[in-house]
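To fix ideas, we close by showing one paired sequence and structure record:
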Amino acid sequence: MNSIRQRAGIDKCILSFSHDRYPSRKKADATAIAKAEREIASGKKGISHLILRAVDDPIDRLKFLFLINGIPVMCYALGNLLASSLKQIVIVGSEEVEQVANAFLDTVGTQGKDISFVREDPNKLNLPNTMQLGRSRLNLEPDELVLFQPGDLPFMFDIEKILQDDDIRNYNLILWLNSRQMMFPGSNEDPESEFVQRNYHYRALCEETNELHEVKEPNVYPINLSAVDPGIIDHLHSTRKDGNIIKAGIRQIMSMPSRVLKLLPVMVYHALHFRSDLKQFRKEDKYQFGMHRDNFHRAVSILLDTEFTTKFHNDPAFVSDVDALEDWEDFEALTHYAETQYGEEGLTRIHPFGEELLSFREKGMPGLKTSIGMYENFPAYINSVYQSLKMDHVPFPDGNQYVPLTSNSEKGKHARKIEHAFSWYSRKCDALKVEN
């Protein structure tokens, strides 16, 4: 395996506002609707009407450009990094992403960061190429880890634990896994406290703590780009949703005969022990894949031929990405609630970069509304997206003002989830302000 050198932390980041595109809007909508219908039919907790790009869109349906409280999703994500200890940030995205980024930075400043932009390649909208585009702008040491982060995590503002993690010294890839038990420890007693609704397809048994974790794939990747094969990462990343990563992993392993023999002891241990050990926690459980955590580390380290580990965290913002209309509306409802409770400055109660974000909304957004089609009339645009994906309501029923969900059967539950979210983010925000 690759050798590891000592590293003090991560100070460079590739921030991706790029995403692949479907060949047509018809195909993209059919895919999104079919997925949501499957989830509804199977009684899944997290229903997702996916926000997907298409080649023939007159307005690029790029999720990073969507507005939350009148501010682009990408500005929240970039603001999180501006407030961190990072020193260098490379942004990868479209021409419109560059317009927004420039307007945002002109308003709020770079906060002392070295920030550069590289345009996505419309013919190569894949993870390896995005990583390579970002890497080309960084001066990296041979074994240096960088943070690779998709730009759809608007409230993931507590990232120092990633950047200063002690395990950076020992591993070339670290996956920060989303553990339901750690993020929402009281959800069994109070279901509405689980204010981010997701489907957890994986199970991890942690022998050192004697715990079972329901796990969802990560959204952030501290990675040594010189030690990890980007092709393998792309293959696993592109199939990571809905449990498909396991089949992809098996196919990848079978294409590497030299590593199959090394994996045999790991897989034999898994076959002999996992199911019986899982039954100690749950006799009946529906999941796509499960493994002992240590055994999983050994398997992936062999597959990637490098030192690999996973981390669990207790931060719901790590799993709360904006992949679907439901995700977007969770954040729109949250910021609407904050503004209803505390007026125009409500965002500052739940986001440590809130003051700068509001300043940009006032000073930078008017100009962007004249140059970016999505922003000319965002309420009408988002309403049309809801209608195209056969949602049962629109978020701006009067064409101007956001109105939270009003369905009698769901209103109470949704309201309580938003209250829980507000309470959690406001406490987190206050704690970070005290630390700083």
Notes: The chain has a mean pLDDT of 90. Residues 325-435 form one domain. The longest strand covers residues 173-179.
